[in-house]
Amino acid sequence: MKILVTGCAGFLGFFIAQKLLEQGHCVFGVDDLNAYYPPHWKRARLDKLQTFGQFRFRQLDLAEPEAAAEVFRSWGPFDRVIHMAAQAGVRHSLKDPLRYAHCNLVAFTQLLEACRISGCPHLLYASSSSVYGEVKMDKPLSTDLPADRPLSFYGATKRANELMAFSYSHLYQLPTTGVRYFTVYGPWGRPDMAYFSFTRALFRDEPIRLFGHGQALRDFTFIADAVEATLRLLALPPQ
């Protein structure tokens, strides 16, 4: 199958693209290779993907006019589209909200339009557990819970993605699936995440910086589990 993976040099996008390639699919990847964290991490992931003969890559910013449309014109039609490209990071959204509007809202709109015009069979995109905000409950979070008060602008953009996708599904019968990932971790993970900063501090004999007065709890999801769940949701036929 021909599958487009956006953000293919990012943490989740890389592992999803790699798994699809191992299964024998043709993967078309795009990524802007931005400098939110050192780009050499992304280029190293990309180098691994480029060892597969059925992988194609293009560096571009999906938020730019006609960028997504050109990808679909030159490489499409696609059997599936997996949208992992986004500006990540909750705390960074306090410093640069316009970057989040550009990457998470404008780019997603461009992609939705390209999927609509091409008649994409299924768009799967990355949402986030951040859409829930501060929910107080004694059991695991559920998709039945309200997600109308995210506490960060990052979470707000991800909730907006869900609403945007719902409207396109309703208006144009575009099949869409959003996945609310819970802090995915593992090898090749983003260096700005807590387990990296904690480890660096330990090796340097420095104090660990904690938020929430040390009372915060966090769920983590191992990367292999996140990838398996994602591919199951794609409902790919056996190769």
Your description of this structure?
The structure is a single chain. The chain is α/β, with parallel strands linked by helices and 239 residues long. 42% of the residues lie in helices and 15% in strands. The protein is built from 8 helices and 8 strands, in the order βαβαβαβααβαββαβα. A 6-stranded parallel β-sheet has the order 3-2-1-4-5-6, with helices on both faces. The chain has a two-stranded parallel sheet with strand order 7-8. Helix 6 links the parallel strand 5 and strand 6. It is globular and about 50 Å long.
Helix content: 40-55%
- List the secondary-structure elements in sequence, H or E: EHEHEHEHHEHEEHEH
Low-pLDDT stretches: none
What is the CA-based Rg, rounded?
Answer: 18 Å
In short:
It is built from eight helices and eight strands; from the N terminus they run βαβαβαβααβαββαβα. With 239 residues, the protein is of the alpha/beta class.
Features:
globular, six-stranded parallel beta sheet, single chain, 8 helices, two-stranded parallel sheet, alpha/beta, 239 residues
Chain-wise SSE layout:
Layout: E1 2-6, H1 11-22, E2 26-31, H2 39-49, E3 55-59, H3 67-75, E4 80-83, H4 92-95, H5 97-118, E5 123-128, H6 153-172, E6 176-181, E7 184-185, H7 194-203, E8 221-222, H8 223-234
Parallel strand pairs: 1-2, 1-4, 2-3, 4-5, 5-6, 7-8
Helix pairs in contact: 1-2, 1-8, 3-5, 5-6
